[in-house]
Amino acid sequence: MNHRIIVLGAGYAGATVAGRLARRLHRDEVGITLVNGDPDFVERVRLHQLASGQDLPRRPLRDLYAGTGVQVRQAWVTAVDVDRRTVTLTGGEGAGTLAYDTLVYALGSTTADHGVPGVAEHAHNVAGKQAALRLRARLAELEPGGTVLVAGGGLTGIEAAAEIAEAHPGLKVAIAARGGVGDRLSDKARRHLHAVFDRLGITVHEQTVITRVEADRVVTATGGEIPARVTVWTAGFAVHPIAAASALEVSGTGQIVVDATMRSVSHPEVYAVGDAALADGPGGRPLRMACATATPMAWQAADALAARLTGREVPQATISYSLQCISLGRRDGILQRVTPDDQVTSTVIAGRTGARIKEFICSGAAWSVAHPTMLLPSRRHHLAATEAAPRLAAL
Questions:
Q1: Pick the CATH number of 3-108+240-320+366-387 from 1.10.1740.10, 3.50.50.60, 3.30.457.10, 3.30.70.100
Q2: Coil, strand or helix: which one is 219?
Q3: What InterPro entries does the entry give (predicted)?
């Protein structure tokens, strides 16, 4: 009987793990099942483009993994039982239960409302494809002069505000941040950011705490109001509660606590990657939720798992950073150089060159997922004798 590997989630992290494992293990000795709610691979880093009205290419998962040995199952995960080693599925291709010998948890994150009243009822977001499509439809309904407020001054909010303002010049776009907009960027990058916002006509509200979202406005902590026929909530992300409901050790954020190889510290047959995992980077600082984190986490997990299954030396590497890339519409962008522990430096590339580099990086990330057997040569190894039987006590 094959060793059963189930990968939950086909974002950048989960999709990369599945493809990399297919290159590392013999398909007649392992069964790899990739479970995802959407039948397509979704470029999350481009969802602000989708929301603004642009069309993105479809990448059906079954086409991507054709001939690799990876089985794609379209369904939504509702529970994980780490004692029985099963996952419960619903919707898509039907409800059911799948058993695993090794689980790779990559269910990502969704929008965090931070308990602010009205977010769930009135705000839109760009955390998923369907949410982005709903926002797209709502923006198309607005008449000229309609007000759009992006709540959140991080990279997601910045990209969403710029994209919407550029694609819909007839709308009045604003952005509100609890602190400063782009305050984690260098001075040079912030100056360029605010110059672009001025050019696009985006109103900036800094040091603004939103306490309630209503259908046509938001209310701030000072009692003020900001008009918003559409509110786009980008003020943080939270992981799905499935892991916290299991016996897995999770952090206060609900993320699965993993070691340097992305393996659960409480259940060694479980690996976690992407936004759903809490791992340390340089200096012991937790890695941030980002595509730039998800992909190297996936490489680390896949190579470590394959090494353990085949009795080879487990690779050790520290995940670090080099860049922060920000799109400001289709013709402008910022490339911010950072240190390995994600601290900004004074090196910035902005303007059209920054936009081109950002596009190259995003396209490269999607290409690597869309060509799971081409990025690296296949070096498949046989399972070690002690790993040949499934249902191991630990890997």
A1: 3.50.50.60
A2: strand
A3: FAD/NAD-bd_sf, FAD/NAD-binding_dom, NADH-Q_oxidoreductase
